[in-house]
Design a protein that fits this description.
Mean pLDDT: 90
Number of helices: 1
Low-confidence stretches: 1-25
Helix content: under 10%
Distance between the termini: 99 Å
Shape: elongated
Radius of gyration: 35 Å
CATH class of the largest domain: Mainly Beta
Length: 383
């Protein structure tokens, strides 16, 4: 007898096998069947986790084979597997159960893989009464910040907050972990004005704190500009309105501050400038003389952090790249030009007395291709 067909059919809990054979050309066709009956399976499982290792307990009924998908691209055919995740998180775990009778059932469950939550944070930065907090918590799923000043709470991961005034505040961070646990961290945060510059926030009235160098005064800036601002800026900012000139334009504002010999001071700011500027520059100086602003490689140079199209701010085709945010990072990413690059923006006073912080913006026969915006200029002691 020759076997000409073998086929399995699963329906209504019956497993049927059909076979046919021929003894002669047209006679003796034989059909046989094997019927397997059985109950439908149900799927269910539990899990335990206090780390990245999760133990799964299969409580399914009437199962014959099992297929797990752990939600991280891996799988298993064990009945009750133990799985190690590579990172904390919440994973969609799928269990598929097959019965001997051919039935299938599937269930899906969100499973956390994590250690217990630990709340922690720091004051990342502050300018005047504006503060930015950094969440350093472990295994957090949700956060609530209480800033200790009777204002609204925040659920942002790394919030910005404006305090009503200077002083000490009891800031509390409440963290809900991936496992549903709660952790709380409270710290006293001091909001103090250590900026030696006045009007570094460039509000509408802050122009009174800055002097203009008479030799470079061809494009006066706007104080208190609120239509736009650099990333990380607050309220109003300083705006050098979009400019271009075939002969050259420049403007320099400055302010005196008192320093002590041997002490270190950090100069920082946030800036925003568009792409496409040609022969353009934005430079910050620390000078010992109100009439000496030197950009050079000589020993008397005092340019500190500079974005300059002639010194790798932009492409070789003489077109600036867009910048938006921290001044020091922007300078390092665009030519590393200025004496403060190697000191991470820190100035060491060589004598006790007055130094002058200058901000210069201009163009050599070219264009800015848009507004130049400056905010949060800080000159603070760091030791």
């Amino acid at each position: 007898m020759n076997i000409t067909m073998s086929k399995s059919i699963s329906a209504l809990g019956l497993a049927v096998v059909l076979m046919s054979g021929l003894v002669s050309c047209k006679k003796n066709e034989i059909i046989s069947s094997v019927v397997v009956d059985g109950a439908k399976p149900t799927t269910a499982f539990t899990n335990t986790s206090g780390s990245l290792v999760v133990t799964f307990t299969n409580t399914s009924q009437n199962g014959d084979t099992y297929y797990w998908q752990f939600g991280d691209g891996t799988n298993s055919t064990e009945k009750s597997p133990v799985h190690t995740y590579s990172a904390p998180g919440k994973y969609n775990v799928v269990l598929k159960v097959n019965s001997a009778a051919g039935y299938t059932a599937t269930s899906t469950k969100v499973v956390p893989a994590s250690v217990a939550a630990v709340a922690d944070f720091s004051l990342a930065s502050n300018f005047e009464t504006n503060a930015v907090f950094s969440n350093a918590s472990v295994a957090s799923d949700a956060v609530v910040w209480d800033f200790g000043d009777n204002t609204a709470t925040s659920t942002d991961a790394n919030p910005s907050h404006k305090f009503a005034g200077y002083g000490d505040y009891s800031v509390k961070l409440t963290v809900t972990g991936l496992l549903g646990d709660i952790s709380v961290k409270t710290k006293t945060v001091t909001i103090a004005n250590t900026n030696l510059l006045k009007g570094g926030g460039f509000g509408a009235g802050d122009g009174a704190n800055w002097l203009t160098w008479s030799s470079q005064a061809s494009m006066p800036p706007e104080y208190g500009y609120t239509t736009d601002k650099p990333a990380g800026g607050y309220d109003g900012c300083l705006r050098f309105k979009s400019y271009s000139n075939s002969a050259g334009l420049n403007h320099l504002i400055y302010q005196p501050v008192q320093v002590v010999a041997g002490r270190k001071y950090s100069l920082s700011a946030v800036v925003k400038a568009p792409a496409g500027g040609k022969n353009n520059y934005l430079q910050f100086y620390i000078s010992k003389d109100a009439n000496t602003w030197i950009e050079s490689s000589g020993s008397d140079a005092n340019f500190f952090l500079a974005l300059n199209n002639y010194h790798a701010w932009g492409s070789t085709s003489n077109s600036t790249t867009a910048v938006n945010g921290d001044l020091y990072k922007a300078v390092v990413a665009n030519g590393s030009y200025g004496l403060g690059v190697v000191t991470a923006g820190v100035y060491t006073a060589t004598a006790t007395g007055t130094v002058y912080i200058g901000i210069q913006c201009g163009v050599y026969a070219g264009t800015s291709n848009g507004d130049i915006l400056i905010d949060n200029v800080n000159f603070v002691p760091v030791n």
